[in-house]
Each structure stands twice: as C-alpha cells, then as structure tokens.
Design goal:
By secondary structure, this protein is of the alpha/beta class. The chain is about 35% helix and about 20% strand. The chain has three domains: about 5-220 and about 405-470, Metallo-beta-lactamase, Chain A (4-Layer Sandwich), CATH 3.60.15; about 225-400, Rossmann fold (3-Layer(aba) Sandwich), CATH 3.40.50.10890; about 490-520, no CATH class. One of its GO terms (molecular function) is RNA endonuclease activity.
Length: about 550
C-alpha cells in the first residue's frame, strides 16, 4: 500500500486559504476549503480553478467555520463535489449563516464592480458563488461530536478535538491504514488562546506521527490578559476615545469576536467603568451569528453575561442598508462594531470612509490583520488610503487590543506542540506569514525532536515511515512562493497613486505640475515622450 501524500493547497506562507489534500488508501480527503484573503494576488486565487479534480474528492473534514477555512466550500460543490462535509454541530450552524452571507457579499461586490467595468468598457465578471449556491450545498454537512471516531472512504478514521478557537472549532486527528501499520496525523486547525471569554483551553492527542500546526502568532507574545486586565485596557481605549461628536469604530470578525467585545463593553457600562453610550452592531452577519451563539449559550463560558449584553437597552443591531447608512447621522459619542475584521469588505469600509478623515474618530483593531489588507495598512500608520476609489487623508487615531485574538501566541503554541509529544516524524508549519513561521521553526527544534518543515503553496509531501519527503516535478504552484502573506503590486500601485497626488499638491503652480507629469511620462515610455509633447505643442499653436 502506497504511503499517504499530503498537498498544501492553502495557508502555506500566509494565514488564509486553508486547504490540505490527503491522498491515502485510494481515497482523497480534503481538510478545509478556505477562501484566500489579503493581497489582490492572493485573492485572485479564489477565482482560479482548484488545483485538484473536484469530482475525485471523497470527503471533506472541516476544522471550523471561519471563511479562511470554509469559504470555498460552495465553489467546491458548484464545481462538482457532492460528497460529505464533516463538521461539529456548532460549526454547521455557523456555516449555514456565514457561507450564505459570503455569497451575498460576492454578489453585491460583483454588481458594483460590473457597473464600474461597464463605464470603463471592461469585461464584466461573475461571483465565485452566490447565496443560492451556498444554500444548495448545506445538506452535504454531516455532524460529528467531539471525541467520536468516524470512518470514511479508504479505511480512514478521524475524530475531532475542541481547539478552543471558535465555537465548534476543532483539531482533527486522522488515522490512515498502511502496510507498516496506521499513520497518525493531527491537523491543528486554529489553536485557541488562553483566557478566551467563551472557549475552553484547546485539547488534542499526543503521540502522533505528523503534526500540521498553525503558526499565526509564531513570532509574537501578547500581554497576559486575564478577564479584568482585558476589560481595564478596553476601558482605557473607550475613555480616551470619548469626545463630543466622536466615534469608536471597531472592525471585528462578525462571528464570536463581535459577541466577545459586546459582552465586555456592556459589562463595563453596567459596572459604571465607562459612561453608557449607544453601541451599534453594523453587520447583518453578526446579527444572525448572534442567534447561533444564543442557541449554544449554555455551552459557552460567560454565556449568561453574553445574554445580558444582548438585552442591554443601548445595544442596537442594524439589518437593512438604510439602517446602516443612518449611522452616519448619529450625534454624540457612540461605538460601532462592524465587519469585516480586516476592513477588506462589508460595512466597516463605509464607516471608515465616513470617519477616517476626522480627528474625533478612533479605530480599535481587535484581531489579526493580514499583510496587504486595509486593516494592516491602517494599523501600520498610513496617512492616506484609498477606499472604493476615493482618496482619504487619515486623521483618526489607531489603537490595537490583541487580547481578543482567537489564536494562541508564540509561547502558547510552543506549549501546545510540546503537549503533542512524542511527534515521531515531522511538524509542518502552516497558517502563518513567513516571519512567524521562521521564528517558530527556529524555536521548535530546541523543544521537540521531530523535523520542522515550512511548506510552500501547492507543495506535496510523501508521509513515509522514514519521514516526510518533498515530491518534486509536480504541477507548478499557482503563484510564486514569495507572494503569499505579503503586500503585492496592487498595494504598491495604491501607494504610488497616493504619493503622486501628494507630490502634485505640493508643487506651487501649474508649470511645476506639468514638469512632474512629463517626467512620469518619460519614465513610463521614453520613446513616446517627444511625440506626446509635439502633439501637445502643436495643439497649443493651432489654438493660438
């Protein structure tokens, strides 16, 4: 019997697009099928064909509902996959909401893009999938409880462990049959941080052959935040933001992060730590996800505090576009929590467009911001940004509170990996930007004996009894290894447009601006500058 082969089709060098294809015993099992986020180059992968034959996939094992792990499942089904998708009951509840919302967002954004394309005489585009596509694949979900062994095609056995990252999140233990006995593989999914408001500490088995481990915060330590410490820090941000006519904007993932922040804000107001003010949840997805959290509240830590927050008189959820637009008319200090968490889509972009240029605005980041996203660009101190084609000068104050992160930090990851010992063959580091993976791969050999591997996008490894072996001469990667997890040419282009605008504004007169543009034309097309200038001069002479 051939050794298992593991393909890394996402989250290899970046934190999005999680997708791993395991070939074993004649079966082809997909672990996660996530959407790529971040730079434009990475997001374009969502539109490209899958790097495998969808009709040959036998089963999908889903770690959790976040879109960077589940977001391309409707595309997979649309492309011909009709088999089972295994997930925990809570993950299925969240996916039922989130995947339809993802389809709706794509339809909406494509409509706007096609209006611009028609005005520019460009080709129109189709959404990756629609809300109807997402609804049609929901019957493929099959619920799996934590700790329950299941068997699927090819004699592959698997069971789910609570990863402590998100309601329903899981690490997946897999056993594959082989001539030399079973091979045990553990996919970490996203490992939860300690002191999560709703989640317990992550659990997983020890004594595996291969570990596929996330490394999102592999290069950084967060401050130790007990619940009181976190709320104290949040209180400080609210207090410093509270100005007449001001706003605290919180870009937040709609699922769990929004509910955590809301619970803490209302608790601070109930305790008199901060003045009570309007709290607006500007996200239809957050509103629907909140219903799923209410359903599972008895299983959540601090579930009662969460339910109290939902009933607070100063909390409002916006549903319609009209209700969302009306937030721009609110007077007096207020707090708006809006998706998306990395400011890449959704209503937060409208709120930022309305507020970034005002000094009375504070933007609070409460989650990881991937390279190339608007959130990371703002977090790193950009003075000018472009949103929906408009240039905006940033006067708002930026703040970050990473106590809400759903990911284990460096020391927590190290401890989690150590708890999986003995790891007999190899550890693959995934779901992390290059700096995070490099830092973690430098530390781990001092703590564990297993070989540490950092795969590139679309790499394939044979998982043999002797260890992991990179398989050469396979289908080329869809993008170069240096691209994932980094800003790309589109980020550089946007920066250049803003710099050019600043340069032209700084020039004293029209003649100076003409000189700047002439130099730019010369750089773009040296051979054509004289012709352009000749035509311009000829036109001037003819008109005089």
């Amino acid at each position: 019997m051939a050794n298992p082969i593991l393909h890394f089709h996402g989250a290899a060098g970046s934190v999005t697009g999680s997708s791993f294809l395991l070939e074993t015993g004649g079966a082809r099992i997909l672990i996660d099928c996530g959407m790529f986020q971040g730079s434009k180059s990475e997001k374009e992968l969502n539109y490209k064909p899958f790097p495998f034959v969808t009709s040959r996939i036998d089963a999908v094992l889903l770690t959790h509902a976040h879109i960077d792990h589940s977001g391309l499942l409707p595309k997979l089904a649309k492309a011909g996959y009709g088999g089972p998708i295994y997930a925990t009951p809570a993950t299925i509840d969240l996916c039922t909401i989130m995947l339809q919302d993802s389809g709706h967002i794509q339809e909406s954004e494509v409509r706007q893009l096609n209006r611009r394309n028609r005005r520019r005489a460009r080709e129109t585009v189709e959404p990756i999938y629609t809300a109807d596509d997402a609804r049609s694949m929901l019957p493929q979900f099959i619920a799996v409880e934590y700790g329950e062994w299941r068997e699927t095609v090819g004699g592959l056995r698997f069971r789910y462990w609570n990863a402590g990252h998100l309601m329903g999140s899981a690490s997946i233990e897999v056993e594959t049959a082989g001539a030399d006995g079973a091979t045990r593989i553990l996919f970490s999914g996203d490992v939860g941080a300690s002191n999560k408001l709703f989640e317990n500490l992550p659990l997983a088995p020890s004594g595996v052959d291969y570990l596929i481990c996330e490394s999102t915060y592999g290069d950084r330590e967060r401050e130790e935040y007990a619940l009181k410490d976190r709320r104290d820090r949040l209180r400080e941000v609210v207090a410093s933001s509270n100005s007449p006519g001001g706003v605290l904007l919180i870009p937040s993932f709609a699922v769990e992060r929004t509910q955590e922040v809301l619970t803490d804000l209302v608790a601070l107001m109930d305790e008199g730590e901060v003045p009570r003010c309007p709290i607006m949840i500007d996200s239809p997805l957050a509103s629907r996800a909140t219903e799923a959290f209410k359903k599972h509240a008895a299983d959540l830590g601090h579930g009662k505090a969460f339910l109290r927050a939902l009933n607070a008189p100063n909390v409002r959820f916006t549903e319609t576009a009209e209700q969302s637009k009306a937030l721009d008319l609110v007077r007096g200090f207020h707090i708006i929590i809006a998706a998306s968490g990395m400011c890449e889509a959704g209503r937060i972009r409208h709120r930022l467009k309305n507020w970034l240029w005002r000094q009375e605005c504070t933007v609070l980041f409460v989650g990881f911001q991937a390279a190339g996203t608007l959130g990371r660009i703002l977090q790193e101190g950009a003075t000018d940004v472009r949103i929906q084609g408009e240039e905006i000068h940033v006067c708002a104050r930026m703040a970050t509170l990473d106590a809400y992160s759903g990911h284990a930090d460096a020391s927590e990851l190290d401890a989690w990996v150590a708890g999986r010992e003995p790891i007999r063959k190899a550890i693959f580091l995934v779901h992390g930007e290059e700096r995070a993976r490099e830092a973690m791969s430098a530390r781990l050999p001092k703590q564990v004996s297993a070989k540490v591997v950092c795969p590139s996008l679309d790499d394939a490894y044979e998982l043999s009894p002797a260890g992991a072996r990179l398989i050469e001469d396979r289908t080329p990667a869809r993008i170069k290894p240096v691209v994932p997890g980094r800003p790309d040419w589109n980020n550089d282009y946007q920066r250049f447009v803003l710099d050019l605008s600043d340069r032209l504004k700084s020039v004293a007169d029209e003649k100076g601006r003409a000189v700047v543009l002439r130099r730019l034309r010369r750089a773009l097309d040296p051979d054509d500058v004289s012709a352009v200038e000749g035509r311009r001069d000829g036109n001037v002479n003819h008109g005089s």
